Structures are given as C-alpha cells and as structure tokens.
Amino acid sequence: MPLIIGLTGGIASGKTTVANLFHEHFGIDIVDADIVAREVVEIGSEGLNSIALHFGDDILSEDGSLNRAKLREIIFSNPEEKQWLNNLLHPLIRNKIQQDLASISSPYGFLVAPLLIENNMQEMVDRILVVDVSSEEQVNRTVIRDNVTSEQVEAILKSQVSRELRLSQADDVIENHTKNQKLLPQITELHQKYLAIELENRSK
C-alpha cells in the first residue's frame, strides 16, 4: 500500500479545500471518512438494515433512506442507543475505509478524517497532516458558513480535541489562518516531501 497521510483539523479549518488542491493539482487520491460514514448507511446496506431492525421502520424516510434528524434526536437523549449505534457503525466505517485505502493508485493518498484523533484512527495512517487555524477564525467561518450562533460553534469546538493536542500529533502542518493564506505553495512543498518519502519507502 502507498504512503497514507491522515488529513485532519478542527471545524472550518479548510480540510476539504486542502484535500481538493492536492487532488486537482497533483492527482492524489482521497478517501473521505465523512463520505464513507454516509455510504455504510445507504439504502440496501448492512448498516441501514441493522438500524431499521433495531429502531423500527420509523427511522426511515419515505424513500427508504435513513432519517438522520430522527436518529440524531434518539441518540442525543439516550447514551445507550448512541453507544449501540457507534458499536455498529465504527467497524463498518473502518472496514470500508481500509478497502478504499487499499485501492489508492496515486503515489500516496489521503484519509480525510475530521475526528482522526478523537476516534483513534492514527494506526490507519503513516503520517498526520493537520490544517491549523485559530479558534477565533474557526468561529467566524462557521457562523458565516452554517448560519449558526457563535455559542453553537463553541460547543462543537469543546467536543473536539484541543488545537494543542491536535498539533502535538502532527507530522506536518498547513497554516490556514487567514482568507488570503497561500495554500498552494505549502501544498506543493508537502507534495514533494511525500513523493520523496514514498520513494524512500519503496527502495527499502
């Protein structure tokens, strides 16, 4: 398997932007944990069938898809049900991520995972790249992007690991503090670095 980089960062740090720039400019394959999490509960999936069996058909929308709002409502007020759901979905998500990583064909690849550290996914990657941004910037961006209050964003920030802990886990860091931060030079430099590491790994 090629070199796998875990790309993470707090809310509104610019993870998706960074991943897309690596893909658009250098053709690097991306596995997105959030997309995988949606795929494992698609219509007809083992995940969705198990959820419907456990919670009843009321958990489904009219078209047979998962009613996420209703599910969130249930698990928000019931820690045991939340634990049951996590026990079901986490293995399914990890297995699908492993399958997708195994099919990467670019010289190295990314696993984009906002909760990489929170969900202890470090063993799935060779290096960790953190997109770093100040908490003030995170609040400002999320309020504008999601039309939510700053208090709601603060609550989300508290549910994620601290900026300091995330940076302590990083092998590489991209700084994205301001709107005009130049991302491409940082990305180009890291691209060259990852190619060199992959080359060295293959020659061992």
UniProtKB/TrEMBL annotation:
Entry-linked Pfam families: CoaE
Catalysed conversion reaction: 3'-dephospho-CoA + ATP = ADP + CoA + H(+)
Chain positions recorded as ATP binding sites: A12, S13, G14, K15, T16, T17
A single GO molecular function term of this UniProt record: dephospho-CoA kinase activity
Keyword Ubl conjugation: no
Function, as annotated: Catalyzes the phosphorylation of the 3'-hydroxyl group of dephosphocoenzyme A to form coenzyme A.
Cross-referenced PANTHER family: BIFUNCTIONAL COENZYME A SYNTHASE-RELATED, DEPHOSPHO-COA KINASE-RELATED
HAMAP family reported in the protein's UniProt record: Dephospho_CoA_kinase
Protein's recorded name: Dephospho-CoA kinase
